Amino acid sequence: MARDKRMTLDDAAAHVKSGMTIGIGGWGSRRKPMSLVRALLRTDAKDLTVVSYGGPDVGLLCAAGKVKKVVYGFVSLDSIALEPHFRSARQSGSIAECVEYDEGMLQWALYAASLRLPFLPTRAGLGSDVTVVNPQLRTITSPYADGEELLAVPSLELDAAFVHLNRADMHGNAQFLGPDLYFDDLFLGACATGRRFLSCEKIVTSDELLKNGSFHTIKINRSMVDGVIESPNGSHFTHCTPDYERDEKFQSAYVKAAADPESWSAFASRFLGGSEADYQAEVKKWHDEQKAQA
Amino acid sequence: MTASTNLANICVVAAAEAFRGNGEIFGSGMGTIQTLGVRLARATFEPDLLVSDGEAFFVANNLPIGGSNKVIEGWVPFRQVFDTVWGGRRHVMMGASQIDMYGNSNIANIGPWKQPKAQLLGVRGAPGNTINNKTSFFIPKHTSKVFVEKVDMVSGIGYDRVAKMSKWTRDNFCLPRVITNLCVLDFETPDNRMRLRSVHPGVTVDDVIANTGFELVIPTDVPVSRGPSAEELSIIETLDPRGLRNKEVA
After folding, report:
1. Which CATH architecture has domain B7-248?
2. A9-103+156-293 classified as CATH 3.40.1080.10
3. B176 preceded by a cis bond (ω within 30 of 0)
4. What is the pLDDT of residues A70-97, one digit of tens each?
5. B121 neighbourhood in chain A, CB within 8 Å
6. Complex ipTM value
7. Yes or no, beta carbons of A102 and B114 under 8 Å apart
8. Which of A90, A123, A129 sits opposite B119 (nearest CB)?
C-alpha cells in the first residue's frame, strides 16, 4: 500500500525556508495554489526566489516583502492585464533581482531540470533583450552540419514546488479537470524530492479518479509528490475550472485595494490575517455584503 | 460614417487581410480587432485557418467574441501552443506598446528594465513568437510615443537584428503587417524598413508621418485601405454583435 501523504497547508508551508527557490504552478490568474501561497504568507520565510507564470501568487509574496528574486515570463491577472503589487515592486525597485524569460524559455528551464539536463537549446529569446538583461545566458553551436547558434536555456532547479489540482488521492496521484494542465508537471519535476506539495479541491480514493474524467486527465503520479493537501476553493480568487470560475469581483477588489498602502493594509488584515478557514469565511461574508449593498 | 467606412470595420478587414494566403496554420489574435480579423479571414477567403477560443480549444464554427456555443475541433493547451509556435505553424497578431522602423517591439516595460517607469506585461511569448512564427501587430492608437526611434525593451525582434542572425532565422523570419487606427504598414522594402502600405479612409499620408517617430518608407502611390464587402459586414456583425470592436479604436 502506497503511503498516505496527507498534510495541512501549514505543514507544507513550514518546509519552505528563507532563501529557497520556490516554483508555483498555474498560469496568470488560473488554477494557482493560492491557499498554499496564503499559508506561506503566515510563515517567517523570506528572501525567496519565486519561479512562476505569474499572477496574484507573485503579487502577494511581493506585497508581503518575502521576495528577493522573481523568475518569470509575465505577471498578469488575465482579465486585468497588470498585477498591481508586482508592478509597484518593479517600479520602486524593491525586488533585488529579476530574471525575465520568454514563456517558452521558462518551460525549457523547468523541463531541463526535470530531465536532469544542464540546459535545453531553443531559438526563443535569441536576438531579443532577454539576452541583454540576462547576461548569464549562453549560446551553443549545433554540432551538426547546420552549425546554427542556439540559446542554451539553463536548468532551473527548485527547492520547493506548490501546485493546485482538481482531484488527488492521498498518495499524490492527481488529476486536472480543466482545459489545461499548464506546466504543473514540470514544476513538480524540477523540484527536489521532499518539498513537492500538491493541494486539491478534493481528495478521493484512487478508483474514484477515473469517475471524474478520462485517464488522460491523470497527469501527475505519486512519485512526483511529497505532500497532499485537501483545500476546497484553494485557488480562490483565481479560477479552477470546472470546479469554479475566477472570482472577478473579488479580483477587482484586490486590485483596487492594492492601489494605496492604507487600503491594502485594511484588505490584508481582513483577509490575510488569519487561517485559510478564516480567509474563506471572510470572502463569503464580503460577497454577502456586496449583495446586500447591490 | 457608414458601416463600410467605420474605422473598427476597416481595421478588422485589414487584420483579416494579413492572414490571406496563410493556409492551414493556427491564426491567433490577441485582442478584439485581431481576433475578429482572423475569424473573418477564416469565414471568407482563408477557410483552412485554425482559430481558437482564446483558451485551449480550436473552434470550427464562427464563434462570436465571448461566445460559448463552441464547436470544438481540437485541443490546444499552452504546451501545444508553444509547440505550434516553435514549429512555425502559426501567425499571431499581437499588440505592442512600442515599435521601431525594423519592427522591434516592446510589451515588457517603459523606461529602463532594471527599474522601469512603468512595468507592463513582461516579454511574455514575444521573443519566441517573433523568431519562430509569423507575427503581425495591431496598434489601436498610432502616435509617435508608440512608433519610436528605439524601443525601451526589445521583446519581439525586428529585421535589423535578424539580419545579423543565423541563416535559418533570416530565411524564416516574417513580420507580415502592422495595422493601426490610421493605416496599414508592412516591411516589404529592400532593407526591411517599415513601409506605408495603405491609409484608412479619411486619413492622409501626412497624418501618418506626423504621428510616427521615425522615417517611414512612403511609396509614390499610397492606396486607401479597403472597407468590408456586404458579406464581410454581415459576418463581422455575427462575430461581434455587441460592437466591442468599436471600443478598441474609439
Report:
1. 3-Layer(aba) Sandwich (3.40)
2. yes
3. no
4. 999 999 999 999 999 999 999 999 999 9
5. 74-76, 81-82
6. 0.96
7. no
8. A90
